[in-house]
Each structure stands twice: as C-alpha cells, then as structure tokens.
Amino acid sequence: MVIEVVRIGQRLVRDDRVTTHVALVSRGFGAEKIYMTEINPEIKDTIEKINNTWGGNFKIEFIEKWKNVVKKKKEEGFKIVHLSMYGESINKAQEEIRAEKDLLVVVGAEKVPKEIYELADYNVGVGSQPHSEISALAILLDRIQNGIQFEKEFPNAKRKIIPTKKGKNVQVKETRD
Ligand code: SAM
User: Fold this and answer.
1) What are phi and psi of 36, to 5 degrees?
2) From the CB of 85, is ligand 1 less than 6 Å away?
3) Segments making up each domain of the chain, as ranges
C-alpha cells in the first residue's frame, strides 16, 4: 500500500507549526509523500533535515491546486480518503479502507471546499467532534496499518533509536564528509 497525503485549504492566520506537524506525522506514520498548498520553504528545509538525520525518502511537494492532485491520483488508481468530522465513523470504514491498495489522504486546514466530499471515495470521521488534522491523520494512519508503520526501516539514517525502557539509546552512524 502506498499512502500519500494532501493538505488543502487556507488558514486565516498561517500556522506553520501545524503544517510542519502534519508533514511529520505523515512521514513518521508511514506515508511516502505530502502535497501542500501553503508555501513556506522553511517547512521543506525542516523535513529535509529530518530525512537527513533520521533516514528515509519522505517527499514534500508544494502545489497550486489541490484538485489537480486529487484528480491525477484518482486516475492512477488511488482511493481518496477525506478526513472530516462529518464523515462516516472510522470504526465502520477502517476495514474496507485497509483492503484498498493505494491511498491519498486529504486533510483540511480550515474550512474545506464542498467539492471534496463528492470527489472522495471515503469521507471519514475520527469521532464526530471537531479536533485537529494532526490527530485525525495520526489515528487514521494507525488504524489502517495496524501499527506496522512503526516497524518500517528508514534507510540511510545517521541516527537510529534503539527503543529502551529507560534512558536514550541512539545508534550514530559515522559519516566521512
Ligand atoms: N470546521 C472545520 C471543517 O469544516 O472541516 C474543521 C477544520 S479542522 C481545524 C481541520 C481539519 O482537521 C479538517 O478539515 C479535517 O481534515 C480534520 N478534522 C478535524 N476534526 C476531525 C474529525 N473529528 N474527524 C476527522 N477529521 C477531522
């Protein structure tokens, strides 16, 4: 299963920290790429630094129009999962979504255009209360991958954490510059 994420919508007050966290959750929870419409080059730098230290090849692409990405991915056979508090319960939808091949997960920033509800194959609510795109995304990615995303290797990491009950155990790979 290939999972990609797109964040759509405009914020009245730009919130780069939330945007960065949506990207970090996507990367840390097994997605391969994120598309976003908010352009702040620092976010790309942050993700590149994280990849450089902690490995993997997570990609971030800035886009003009979210709809073009959604339509292109649909043509490529991806199923579109739109996270919305108005959607069907994740508890009901998760089994069917797990059986899909490739997914494009859509999250909003503020109010999302109505059109996405029609374009989506699944409109999924993580509960029916408003919370956040960060939490909704994390829970969806965990439910559909059943935790195996945390077993994934991030190749070419300079640092690798060896999980430990107490303290910190970090393997540091020597590099010659
Ligand atoms: N009232 C806004 C709306 O009309 O969608 C809520 C925006 S919320 C700050 C930003 C995003 O978080 C939403 O677009 C959605 O993707 C996600 N989100 C928030 N609560 C959710 C929930 N209970 N279930 C699924 N997604 C949720």
Assistant:
1) -145, 150
2) yes
3) 2-172
Residue with tokens 């029916």: 128
Q: Is the CB of 4 under 6 A from ligand 1?
A: no
pLDDT confidence of residue 110: 83
What is the distance between the alpha carbons of residues 118 and 43, in angstroms, rounded to a whole number?
30
What fold, for 2-172? Answer: Alpha/beta knot (3.40.1280)
Tell me the two tokens of residue 91: 């508890």
Q: Which of ligand 1's atoms lies nearest the C-alpha of 82?
A: 16
Going from the Cα of 152 to the center of ligand 1, the distance in angstroms, rounded, reads 28
- For the record, the structure tokens of 65 come out as 């129009």
Buried b (16+ CB within 10 A) or exposed e, 114-152: eebeebbebbbbbeeeeeebbebbbbbbbbbbeeeeeee
- Separation of CA 40 and ligand 1 centre (Å): 22
pTM for the predicted model, two decimal places = 0.94
Q: What is the pLDDT of residues 53-80, one digit of tens each?
A: 999 999 999 999 999 999 999 999 999 9
Residue 114 Cβ inside 6 Å of ligand 1? The answer reads no
- Residue 140 CA, ligand 1 centroid: distance in Å: 13
DSSP 94-112: HHHHHT-S-EEEEEESSSP
